[in-house]
Amino acid sequence: MRVGVVGLGAVGSLFFNRLLHHINPRNEIVAASSNRVFALVKQQHLRNLESVAIYERAPGGQRTPVLQVPVNAPPNALSLTTGADEHVTTPLDVLLVAVKSTDTVDVAQQLAVAATAITNNPTISSIGLQSRKNSLLISLQNGLGNVHVLQEQLVTENVLHGVTYMGGQCLSPGHVIMGGKGATILQGADHLGDVQQKHLQRFCTLLDAAQLPTQVVNSQDVQSVIWTKLLVNAGINPLASLLDRPNRCVTDGASNHRVVRQIVDEVAAVAAAEGIPLQLGGQLPLEFTLGVANATSTNVCSMLHDIRAGKRTEIGAINEMVVYYGQRHGIPTPTNALMVDIVRALENRRD
Ligand SMILES: CC(C)(CO)C(=O)C(=O)O
């Protein structure tokens, strides 16, 4: 099967690297494999990529590669593409969207333009050509609203929600420090056609083989999965960003617990008003969130990573969405609103 990954940040790199490692770990010239994986990379990054790697952080702070795949020559070099390369000639079966939610509109527009160019001029080959008919797009992004944007911009129903609790810290595209192993959950394709259902089945088998265990949930249960992850992100990301520390910091001390509890209790109240049951495994929202913070304790969360890099964060797709849905139901969400303002202040901070 042919898989594309757009967005080589932490999550995109973890998935791309493991898939490439499964398909061709030593960059050998192999007889045509039935599986290929492509990553969409900007031209300026393409030049510098000799290998892709996943690292583990050792107790002393050093990092050691736990998986490294050469991409310095074909065939693996052909897996990295700007999206307009001649060799990317056949449509993709699955495109994993792993860009930050702040970039979803931009990326969706680029994919839509590429798809239109191909329809008008079939001699152009581009990774964008995947998105028209039978290909499946899977959004593995934080926050709310991404799937809707992809569906609207690409005029397709073939977009599925995905959620991952795999954490990581991206050093540069294709280079990522592992930040905790967690589940990956994908929406089923039960509401789509046979072809898309088959693509999803094969994709999950491929992910399993690449040591990326994945669960599939029915479409009607997917909102529970998304809102549970929203709760976790809303509880961990702003406070860890404010404290400028890895995730474990939110578990330190009663006052941190109080902040997290107020945030996640508001999320739970809004989810209940939306009629969405959360999947907390019998725990309270606070306990569940602290459990994830412990499981990803050394990870620098994505929001803090953005703040440190001077980029816009995903606060608009996370805590601000809680405020928005809260207003629709008349549910007060003052702590989430405060987090939005604090994170915006961090984004706008000048030296
Ligand atoms: C689960 C968590 C909090 C891991 O860091 C994450 O999703 C993120 O960093 O955005």
Automatic annotation (TrEMBL):
Gene Ontology MF terms: 2-dehydropantoate 2-reductase activity; NADP binding
An example Gene Ontology CC term for this record: cytoplasm
EC number(s) reported in the record: 1.1.1.169
Residue intervals of the Ketopantoate reductase C-terminal domain: 221-347
This protein's UniProt keywords: NADP, Oxidoreductase
Claim: Cell cycle is one of the keywords in the record: no
NCBIfam families (UniProt xref): apbA_panE (TIGR00745)
Protein name (Swiss-Prot/TrEMBL): 2-dehydropantoate 2-reductase
Species, as recorded: Achlya hypogyna (Oomycete)
